[in-house]
Records
---
Amino acid sequence: MSDHKPYDETHFQGMISYEKDVKAGMMEGDIGVQISKDGRVWICVDGVALIRFMPKSRYSKKED
């Protein structure tokens, strides 16, 4: 029995920022995903944000 919660594939349009330079290859480590109520997403590796995502609806409001 696995203790991992499955997530269905989902797609969103928005701004993606890469927070670190990443070299190609493999490493052992911890990966975390956090999704806020307003749709922002953080993907972290070993506790450090690697990729951040802000949905288009969130940054479009700032430009109005």
---
Amino acid sequence: MKILNSNSGFYLTEVQETFSDAETLVQIFKDYVFPKNLRSCLDMCSISQRTLNDERIVLSPVPRIEQGVFFLCDSNDTKVGSISFTFSDHGSSSTSYITKVKAVIKKSERGRGCFTEMFTLISWFFNQFLQADLAQISIVNTAPQVSKKLDERTVETLNQRDAPESTVPFDSVSDRKVKVADYSGSFTSEEWAPFSLLINDVTVAIPDKGIGKF
């Protein structure tokens, strides 16, 4: 699976349940606010491969994704970052949610526009492909670039709260809610045009809105 920005050559691709991918995740997440060990990364790879894979992504609507994990790759196929998330209905019959979003760019790759690439790629996937109704995102105050990107769009701030523990490397958390209709309207059709989801270089059609019941 490849979620491609044809203008830049950057793309997202799902992790596989391998030691190699788990070790790569460890290296990417070691500079995250909460570093991950090999055991947790293996678990992430295992869950992701079960619920985010080529066979399920072509279903219409796309089924629940318990924990999807993508690598961000540049045009040279270098894995420069990662993002994880969940996609479900939380028991609702009418609303789908993106939650538990964790995004990080590898420290050695920062400062060359990788986060902007990840932001637009995952925005297209969440908003245009999965057509999620709401996204719930929490942003720590040590990630101002994330707040800036969301502030440029129609995103509601729910509250600003203090860090949960004195030992964490940030002081406060901003809780945001993204409404699909408003968020979609903040992009132009030209901005969305370069993006597509491909399997073996074949474009996958946009699925029906909703979440499959398995």
---
Amino acid sequence: MQSVQLGSSRRAWLLFFADATVGLVFGWIWAAQRDWLAAIFCLAGSMGAVRIGLLLRRRADLRAKQVPVAEGRASARAADGALFVSLGYQMRGARLRDGLVLLGPSSAAFVVAGGWTHLAWRLATLPFGVRFRFVDLAIDVPSHGDLDLALQDAVERHGGFIIDRDWTYAPAQRWLMRPGTEGIVCIERPPPASLTSRWLPVPPPSPARFRWLRNRIAAAAATITAALGLTGLAVWQLTGDTEYLVAGVFYAALVAGSVLGAIVVAERRNARAGDPQ
């Protein structure tokens, strides 16, 4: 048995102490003043501390069992170096879900680590918080070291699918596609070229297809930007507090700038991929 742990345990400890402190401080305020808002913050901090505490205990138990552990922030190599694991996501249309991409010498897999969410929701919630991702994956490697069987077992236990040699790979974008099917699998960290050379390169999208994708993403971002700005304006008119207007404009500009930057990077990468030189 091997364990791959993505997300720094040191950061998890910091979050644990921060959540526990929030729970204790606001719990004391609630007990002294009976403030319902303090009770909400106390509950949120306590629940966060419990969740992170269970994660840290699980990781400590694995180490106590002398299970080989590979740890990294967003990617890691298994204890014997034969398996590369990275955070990633699967995207179908405007829906996406988080997961892990596992690349072995002769096989690969996508293991599910979260439910489906809509791209518009992901963009809308992006400015309001930092995503701290902690994923533990136990991989049962047979005694004879057959990673193909280990990946198949991981898919069956956690959900996901095997990525066979019929898929194609785009090195510039780090995504995998299966011809004739909808959607992509994106790898967050660049894997070694020796593990991706088995797949044929993805042909760059046609200019018409790229414009369609760009316009669709830009339209979703424009809708979210307008909604944030109008919400700030409406609350300002109702309350007279200009801070709501400033906040709405700030978050709208943040979403617009992030999407615009992503579109510019995508255009440059697509131009390089289509350059025969």
